[in-house]
Design brief:
The protein has about 260 residues and is an all-alpha fold. The protein is elongated. The protein has 2 domains: about 180 residues, ABC transporter transmembrane region fold, CATH 1.20.1560; about 60 residues.
Length: about 260
Amino acid sequence: MRGGARLVSLLRPYAWLFIATMLVTVVASVLDGFSLSMLVPFLRTIFKESTLLPVGGSRAQAIIAWITGPLISTGSPQDALRSVVVVLLVALVLKNAAEYLAAYWNVVIQENVVRDLRLRLFSHLQTLPLGYFQQTKGGQTIARLINDTDQVKTAVTAALASFFQNIVMIIVYLGIMLSISVRLSLVALVLAPVLLVIIRPLINRLRRRSREMVAERGDLTSVAGEMVGSIKLIRAYVAEPYEERRFLEMANRYR
C-alpha cells in the first residue's frame, strides 16, 4: 500500500493531464465500438441485403439505425454504401487521433514521473552514510538510479493508465456484446476466468525473472565500472584475461 500511495503522490502534479488522458481514452473506446458496429450495415450493403439495417434486430442494431439511419436509408444503394464508408472512415480517423493523443499524454506523464523520482533518489543518495557506499557495489547503485526508475513507467502504465483504459474498453465492448447476444456474452464471461488461471502462473514467473534480471544488470554494470575505474591497476598486473572472463560470465548470466 505504501508503494501505491507513493506512486499516486508522484502523479499528483499531473492529475489534470491524467484525467484528460482518461477522458480521451473513453472517447477512443466508444468510437472503437462504434466502428466495429458500423461493419454490420457495411457488410449488408456489400452482400446486397434488402435493407441496410435489419428490422427487429438487436439493441446495438437499433442504436446504429438511430444514428446512421438518415444517412443510409435514402438514395440509391451506391449512395448508401458511400455514406456508410464515409461514416466508418470518419469514426476510424477520430478514434486513431484520440488513441494517439492519449498515448502521447501517457508518455508525457511517465517521463515526468520518472524524472521526479530520479531527482528524489539522487538527493536521497547524497544523504546516505558512507558505510552504504562501502557495502554496496557502485554498479548496483547506478542501476537503481537509472534502470530501476524506468520500471516506474511500467507501473504507471500497467497499474493506473492501462487499468482505467481497459475498464472503459471492457464496459464498451460488454455493452455491445450484451446488446447483440446475451447468451454468447455469458459464454465469453464464463471462459474468461479459465484464461486467467492459465496466464496467472506465467505472469508470476515473468515478474520473478524481471527482478532477477535487474539485479544481474546491476552486477554487469558493476564489473564494467570497476574495470574502467581500475584500468591502470589491471594493466599493471596484466589482469585483462581475468577481467574478460569475469565480464563474460556476467554477460552470459544476464543473457
